[in-house]
Design brief:
This protein is an alpha/beta fold. It has 32 helices and 29 strands. Helix 19 links the parallel strand 19 and strand 20. The longest helix is centred in the middle third of the chain and has 43 residues.
């Protein structure tokens, strides 16, 4: 951690903001440990002898000011220079410390040590001549950044790189201004009622369902707020029929929501704040990859070393080249993937191959949309730990199994399932310790009693010997003879064991091939010797038995001779009493040993004590006690840790989120999500794979790229860019900055594809989605004829003779076929909308036809107003949820695919006005969603006579291709054919 201690010669004056005290009291209730008022805040900061850690934060909105972030033990204070005097700081906010705050501090900070932190409740109370030391603090902060950048080997910024970052900064400001103006110009959406997703009508929750009062509704992903309630802000997570579901940024009390009101669009300030943070990291040379700016600005990249790594799945030649270059590239690679060329397959193999290399940092899979992020995940190998970070209600079905929250909940359940029984097992360790202490006490007592028993037996033997006479002599003789026999029996037994091993070896060798016969004689000799040894053992055992019996009889005779002698009787009584007490103590020790063993976890219990022979029993008891003394402290610590872990996991599963992130091989999140989710704060990535990079602007793509050592941008620069040319043209008069206009008009991918060396641009050229008749037109119109179709399919359709069909409305009367103006309020960025009733009727009938034939279909149109007309008509014959999924504008279907695509041009007029259809990439996106049948509906005369030269040329090329290879049909013909199929009781 880099830090600089800054001793300031005077006090730092803090002026509370207007609503600060109420905010502090509320947050202190929600987060105990936070200061409850400004004076306590100042007191806490003054108590920090080592200084208060501080960092700087870039402006969070266009025209905003930098702020000074001062960190307490549990909180973060945001300070702004007080205007107009700038000799003090205004306390803008206080919040609890979060993970991203700890990460920011770990990168570097200033330790501020003023003479005093002082509160003035009114700016007029600030002493004359007070100093906020702002220039000094900003200078010290820059020095920390330079030091860190130098340590990392980051080169100094060139003039061109600084100019680029300045332009991106202005781009962010312009984008925010554009979206803010658009939000303000969008009419609110009235709602008639509010419901909670859980059905409860009380309490606090974050998700609510609003029933709209009119036909209009906000799009999924739009940021909205309840009009008149600035704090009630959230995001539309679902829009279906007449209702929208909103997830609020903070839980909202049901009782505080107006049951009738309006939802209004509001800009997403988080997006622009994260973009500015990314630019600030690049300015400070703190981006993870030192080659990012040289690649983006100077188009300088390092060479790619050749590798022979093999993917887990078979790839075509282009995909394999992309894979091998991606796993080896040191800075940036572009992979150009037109529709159907296997981008997702290639991405999954790149992610898997990089993750399999065992590098310390994970792979990031990211994109602008949740759908693009989720498409990759199901294709990744199951042995990789893949974590999806995002909101469940915005994640698709493919991504939900990988959600961090879901995996944490599953892991929590598995941990509780596994550790629950073990926790119960280890619960007895404390009891085992009590029994071990009991056993130790019994062993101490037993040792004393055994010694006492030995002494008293000696005294009994001496008393007997003194008066035993011949009977004692006989016992002594037999005892000596028994000892000799036992020694002889031991020697004989050992010899027999040796002979047995030799005999077995000789028998094994006798079975060896070729030479086995050589060992036959030794085996026979060992047979004889072993037989003789067994006979000797039997004789010795018989002699030992005879001697034992004789000794027992001699001892009975000795006892009979001496039992009535007073001295012997007294010695016997004393010995028998000690024997009884010894046996009882041994029995108590065995009870303690059994109880201790039974209290131990399974697998930890030692062998049971052998209780038959006293000597063996005493030895086993001592060994058990020694083992327990060694193992119980470890088992107790293990049980305590297991219990604490089990109890911790029993609570909220959020505690497992950092562990999942720490061990993940692949992390998936949207571009903005990589920087806005606290779980990813401080996480660096080995490789960032950005999908659909052709749709992502430079400011957005920087957010994930500054976190990664190297990057692969995957996309199609011939698909829709972040902003269409017509939109950029409309904003041009307000932006007035050619450099910003250029960045607005092109995606990050588009800006690099013709500037990076060809070695770092890999095109995928083999498409497998569309029929060749469609792909050939797409290839010649958009991809310079380089797109090939290796797969050929047969064509079967009850309406059209070719997979590529056009239904022409030009022969309809003008009043029937011409478009009608629909206003501006529903179109993107307030552009003029259109509807075409004739096209809408036919598209509705075609969709219903294919739906009844159980064919996967979609209707795509350029205008939201036309989409609304078709959706309303289809909802009368098809489930509205299906309609919502399958009827949309070009933008909403980018990246999707269907068996049948029904596309309506909508524009039909006498003077060739085509509006934003002149953005040719709209046609490319719409046409390339198809897998089997593409049906275009439009006025061929209007299209081929368009005012816009490029669109007119495309339309005429389309007509020529259809005449030669496709199927051009008239509106009435298809309409009648649909009616005939219905009359015949067919499938229509």
């Amino acid at each position: 951690m880099a830090f600089r201690t800054v001793d300031l010669p005077g006090p730092v004056i803090l002026v509370p903001g207007a609503s600060l005290e109420g905010q502090m009291r509320q947050k202190a209730q929600d987060h105990p440990g936070l200061p409850t008022d400004p004076l306590r805040l100042a007191s806490d900061l003054n108590s920090r002898d080592d200084g208060a850690p501080a960092t700087f934060s870039e402006p969070r909105r266009a025209g905003g000011d930098r702020s000074l972030l001062v960190h307490g033990g549990t909180y973060l204070v945001r300070l702004f220079l007080t205007k107009p005097h700038q000799g003090s700081y205004t306390i803008a906010a206080i919040d609890p410390l979060r993970m991203r705050d700890h990460h920011r501090l770990s990168q570097g900070c200033l330790l501020l040590r003023p003479t005093e932190w002082r509160v003035c409740y009114d700016v007029r109370e600030v002493p004359q001549g007070s100093d906020a030391y702002w220039p000094r603090l900003t200078g010290e902060w820059l020095r920390i950044g330079d030091r860190l950048a130098t340590e990392r080997g980051a080169p100094a910024l060139t003039a061109e790189q600084t100019q680029f970052l300045d332009t991106v900064g202005r781009l962010i400001d312009a984008s925010e201004a554009i979206t803010t103006d658009s939000a303000r110009s969008t009419e609110p959406y009235p709602y008639a009622s509010v419901g909670s997703t859980g059905g409860q009508r009380h309490g606090t929750r974050a998700v609510y369902e609003f029933r709209l009062a009119g036909p209009r509704r906000p799009e999924e992903g739009a940021c909205v707020r309840i009009r008149g309630r600035s704090g009630y802000r959230g995001q539309v997570t679902r829009a279906a029929g007449a209702s929208v579901t909103v997830r609020f940024d903070q839980p909202v009390d049901w009782a505080h929501i107006d049951q009738q009101g309006e939802l209004e669009i509001t800009p997403n300030s988080v997006v622009y704040a994260r973009q500015r943070e990314a630019v600030a990291l690049l300015r400070a040379r703190q981006a993870r990859g030192t080659g990012l700016l040289p690649a983006l600005v100077d188009h300088q990249v390092r060479g790619i070393r050749p590798v022979s790594d093999a993917p887990a799945e078979e790839l075509d030649d282009d995909q394999l080249q992309a894979f091998r270059k991606a796993v080896a590239v040191e800075d940036m690679l572009l992979v150009l993937g037109p529709p159907g060329t296997g981008k997702t397959r290639t991405i999954s193999q790149i992610a898997a191959g990089t993750a399999a290399a065992g590098l310390p940092d994970p792979v990031l899979v990211t994109s602008h949309t949740n759908r693009a992020v989720d498409n990759v995940l199901s294709r990744l190998p199951r042995d990789l730990v893949v974590v999806r970070v995002g909101s469940e209600d915005r994640t698709t079905a493919e991504g939900r199994p990988f959600l961090m929250e879901r995996q944490a909940a599953e892991l929590r359940g598995e941990i509780l399932r596994v550790t629950g029984p073990w926790k119960r097992e280890y619960a007895g360790v404390g009891v085992a310790g009590q029994w071990a202490r009991e056993l130790g006490g019994r062993l101490d007592r037993l040792g004393f009693l055994v010694a006492e028993e030995t002494r008293l037996r000696g005294e009994l033997a001496a008393a007997r010997r003194a008066v035993g006479g011949p009977a004692q002599t006989r016992v002594d003789e037999l005892t000596s003879e028994r000892l000799r026999t036992e020694r002889a029996l031991g020697r004989s037994g050992r010899r027999t064991e040796r002979l047995t091993r030799s005999h077995q070896a000789a028998r094994r060798r006798r079975g060896w091939w070729l030479i086995g016969f050589l060992f036959g004689l030794p085996a026979l000799l060992y047979d004889r010797r072993l037989a003789a040894a067994h006979q000797k053992d039997e004789k010795l055992l018989a002699a030992d038995t005879r001697i034992r019996d004789a000794l027992a009889e001699a001892e009975r005779q000795l006892d009979a001779v001496t039992r009535d002698i007073p001295a012997v009787r007294a010695a016997r009584k004393a010995a028998q009493e000690v024997e009884r007490r010894t046996a009882q103590c041994r029995s108590d020790g065995c009870t303690a040993a059994r109880s201790a063993r039974e209290s131990l976890p399974a697998g930890e219990a030692p062998s049971p004590v052998r209780e038959t022979e006293p000597e063996t029993c005493d030895r086993d008891l001592a060994e058990l006690h020694d083992r327990l003394a060694r193992r119980l402290p470890l088992l107790a610590a293990r049980g305590e840790l297991l219990g604490a872990w089990h109890d911790a996991v029993s609570g909220a599963s959020e505690q497992l989120h950092p562990e999942l992130i720490r061990y993940a091989h692949v992390i998936a999140a949207t571009c903005i999500g990589t920087a806005s989710r606290p779980e990813l704060s401080g996480v660096d990535f080995e490789l960032a794979i950005v999908d659909e990079a052709g749709q992502i602007g430079m400011a957005d793509v920087l957010v994930p790229l500054v976190r990664a050592r190297r990057a692969v941008l995957v996309g199609d620069h011939q698909q829709l860019p972040p902003f269409l040319d017509s939109e950029v043209e409309a904003w041009g008069k307000n932006v007035g900055d050619p450099a910003v206009m250029k960045l607005l008009s092109e995606s990050a991918l588009e800006g690099l594809v013709h500037r990076l060396p060809k070695t770092h641009v890999v095109p995928l050229t083999h498409q497998r989605r569309m029929p060749s008749v469609i792909a050939d037109f797409i290839s010649s119109s958009f991809y310079d004829g380089k797109l090939s179709t290796p797969v050929r399919r047969g064509h079967r359709d009850p309406l059209f003779r070719s997979p590529f069909a056009f239904v022409d409305t030009a022969r309809l009367p003008a009043a029937e076929r011409y478009e009608k103006e629909a206003g501006r309020r529903d179109e993107r960025w307030g552009q003029r909308g259109c509807i075409n009733p004739a096209e809408a009727r036919l598209l509705t009938r075609l969709a219903a036809f294919y739906h009844r034939n159980h064919t996967e279909w979609a209707v795509i149109v350029p205008y939201k107003a036309q989409k609304a007309v078709i959706a309303a008509a289809l909802s009368r014959v098809i489930d509205p949820e299906q309609v919502d999924l399958n009827v949309g504008t070009v933008d909403s279907f980018q990246g999707g695919e269907r068996d049948v695509i029904l596309y309506g041009f909508t524009r039909s007029n006498h003077d060739g006005r085509v509006g934003f259809l002149k953005e040719l990439r709209r046609a490319n996106v719409a046409f390339t969603r198809v897998k089997h049948q593409l049906v275009l509906v439009g006025d061929m005369d209007t299209l081929t006579g368009a005012r816009d030269t490029r669109f007119r040329e495309l339309a005429r090329s389309l007509r020529g291709h259809l005449v030669e290879h496709g199927d051009i049909r008239q509106y009435r013909e298809i309409s009648d054919r649909l009616a005939d199929l219905a009359d015949e009781g067919g499938r229509a």
